[in-house]
Amino acid sequence: MTKQKQFLPGEGLLILEVQERLLKTLEQCCLELLHDIPEPTLTSDSFPILPEPLLKPESEITGFESLGIMAAEFPYRVPAELDLRLIESLLAARAAAAEDHLWTLREDPDYFSRAVLDAQDHGQEMLKDTMGIDHPVFSHGQRDVLWARVIGSVVVNAYIELEYFSELSSQAKKLASMQEKYARDISPSKDLPKEYLEALLRFQFYVSQSAKGPLGNLKFAAVASPPLRKFFIREPPADYQSPKIRVISRPGFKMDNVEEQLVWLLRTLWEDGTDLFLASMPLVIDEIERLIQSEPRAGQLLSSRITAIIGDLSIISQCLNQLGLYHPWARSFESETADRNETLQKEYAQRTQSLGKILAALHEKSISSRAVTPGQPTGSKFVYPVDKRRTLENVEALREAEGNLDAFWVSIDHLIIAKAGDLRDSAIRKLLSQPRILQRTREWVEPEKPSPAVPAQQKAIEVDQYTWYQPISKFYAAPTAKDLDIQKPKNKVKTRSWKGAPRHDPHSSRILTQPNHVDPQRSFPVDARALKVFRTVFFNPATTSTPGEVPWNDFLHAMTSVGFTVMKLYGSVWQFQSTRLDVERNIQFHEPHPRGKLPFTVARQYGRRLNRAYGWFGDMFVLAKK
Q1: Residue 510: its pLDDT value, please?
Q2: How many CA atoms lie within 13 A of 210 on its CB side?
Q3: What is the mean pLDDT of residues 386-392?
Q4: What torsion, rounded to 10 degrees, do the Cα atoms 187, 190, 196, 202 define?
Q5: Are 444 and 392 in contact (CB under 8 A)?
Q6: Most buried one in 221, 403, 438, 486, CB count within 10 A?
Q7: Cβ–Cβ contacts within 10 Å for residue 246, how many?
Q8: Distance (Å, rounded) from C-alpha 151 to C-alpha 363?
Q9: Helix, strand or coil for residue 619?
Q10: Rounded-to-integer distance, Cα 99 and Cα 93, Å
Q11: What is the mean pLDDT of residues 588-603?
């Protein structure tokens, strides 16, 4: 009884009563629809039973699959089974996105600046108090305190997301392998193999724990997000130096029906209380997506940051939902987990020990001004004119921004190593110690006279004269040219000293140049619409005119034209799966919100991610012959 392997007598009776009423209703519907046929004839051989018609998959109707549509159709379809490959696919793509996010924070000054400013804009310090007064950090000379909170949160969230989703992805991959390993031993009439059951329970526990991060971020950011800020106010702090902030609903403010529904659903999530326990997270996430699809104004009340958080919660919810489908064993998961709770808690604490050290190192009381000041996106510190043609002024601006960003991350790495150690056995350490590189701008050299035309194949593998490479972190790794399979350019590059250029130790890192590692003869013939997208995504200031925005539908078209299938997740997340490339890696991108167009800076970052994932570059895409 405690394991709930079978229904209790009372539950079984209720199920039979519901089934009886449902079948009677369906029978009555059939009789109403076929009223012109005598009832006794309906069950005779005159009308043989026909095969069930196949529903068209959503991808054939709209061009892509959608988790929202799948959730809406779920009650009307044959009960689904546990799909561990779907879970593995979602988590692997999300872990890769977390890697790319941290990588881009270290590589792209513009991306870093926008991430910090967006985090500031969603901080509860932005709320007025009940007297209409700004938070004390804006009026008591505490700007450094504010920046410590904001910058610390950006770094911590990037590290936590990478650690959590990498761990979940690894566990999901092992689960999928175990499911295949024990396929012949799994039967509804038998208990699950012990090793497989232990892995399932561990995965469910870790998924539930990982939800706390996005839920906490939602609680902190939603009330202060620009579209929802009008509904909330702060209570004045008792001490202007106190970091505690208490937020309440704005008294007397009346919401319309859509606003009230959305805020209630979001509050149910971030409060993580009885309402969420009774409703379940997957159901609440499904309802938010349904509201957004049925009421466009609900989507306008969500900032891009909040939709990204909802996207993470949807992936976690999908994992929980899939585990809940694993009948009859899912009914006993709760009691089985309770028996192992103490062991799971200890294991989880051990696995996340490094994150606790990082949180302590980057707490606003611990992080020093030496670490915060380089990361403040003030003045022209991170102005990054990457969309402009290369001139002396633009190159110096690019190099200055990159130097400022490198200086910030050096201070952060130094701080974390000093206070948290080397992060051994963590996904963070694994990423930062791999032979991965940051793209950097060379010093300006006067352009030489145009050389004779070179074959397209040679041009594709030519080293970019404006670009060189450096390790992603000098504290964790110092890859050599041999490690990265990088060829040095034959021609010596003329350089001259510049006060903002980072210095390099020849024994720890080298100035590296990297040709594309993909077969230069590989090309993708695409139509004009897709080619325009890829020219913007893989923008080359030396050969392409001033870039513009990319409509999201055009980006979807371009990706499908080179063999990707598309799945719309919740929030702003879309997942792309390759069907033609010799790789199994999926990739996730966020749909621009709310305008539906990718700004050039975002499109370029998507191009960098595609380059890292698949080795793509601009010259690979050519106009298809008609």
Answers
A1: 40
A2: 28
A3: 83
A4: 120
A5: yes
A6: 221
A7: 12
A8: 10
A9: helix
A10: 10
A11: 87
In this predicted structure, the answer to whether residue 314 has a pLDDT above a threshold of 90 is: yes
Please tell me the least confidently modeled range out of 19-33, 140-154, 454-468: 454-468
What is the rounded CA–CA span in Å between residue 69 and residue 285? 13
CB 454 within 8 A of CB 502: no
Q: Which helix (H) or strand (E) holds 306?
A: helix 304-324
Pairing relationship of beta strands 564-568 and 65-66 according to DSSP bridges: parallel
Q: CA 611, CA 619: separation in Å to the nearest integer?
A: 12
Q: Which token pair is 323?
A: 């585990």
Q: What is the pLDDT averaged over residues 272-276?
A: 90
Rg of the chain in Å (alpha carbons): 28
Nearest alpha carbon to residue 613 among 570, 554, 562? 562
Distance in angstroms (rounded) separating the CA atoms of residues 441 and 511: 11
Read off the amino acid at residue 568.
K
Alpha-carbon distances, residue 493 vs 420, 443, 445 (angstroms)? 40, 9, 8
Q: Residues 234, 124: contact at Cβ < 8 Å?
A: yes
Q: Sort 191 into a burial class: Cβ within 10 Å, 0-12 / 13-18 / 19+.
A: middle
Predicted local confidence at residue 463, as pLDDT: 42
3-class state of residue 579 by DSSP: coil
**Phi-psi map region of 593: left, alpha, beta (phi>0 left; psi -120 to 50 alpha):** beta
Q: Which amino acid, 68?
A: G
User: Which one-letter amino acid corresponds to residue 88?
Assistant: E
Task: Give which of 115, 91, 88 is closest to 103, Cα–Cα.
Answer: 115
CB 590 within 8 A of CB 304: yes
Beta strands 247-249 and 550-551, pairing class: unpaired
Tokens of 59: 């991808």
In the structure encoding, which two tokens stand for residue 371, read together?
A: 């670490």
User: Is pLDDT of 579 > 60?
Assistant: yes
Inter-residue contact 556 to 64 (CB < 8 Å):
yes
442 and 470 Cβ atoms separated by less than 8 Å: no
Q: Is the preceding peptide bond at 226 cis, omega within 30 degrees of 0?
A: no
Nearest 5°: phi and psi at 133? -100, 145
Strands 587-590 and 550-551: unpaired
The predicted structure's pLDDT at residue 490: 39
Read off the pTM.
0.83
Residue from 436, 377, 381, 432 nearest 410 by CA: 432
Ramachandran angles phi, psi of 537, nearest 5°: -60, -40
Residue ranges of alpha helices (H) inside 182-303 are 194-210, 212-222, 257-271, 274-279, 281-294, 296-300
507 token code pair: 């024994």
H/E stretch holding 533 reads helix 528-537
> Whole-angstrom Cα distance, residue 411 to residue 401?
16
Q: Is the pLDDT of residue 484 over 70?
A: no
Residue 579 token pair: 């069907």
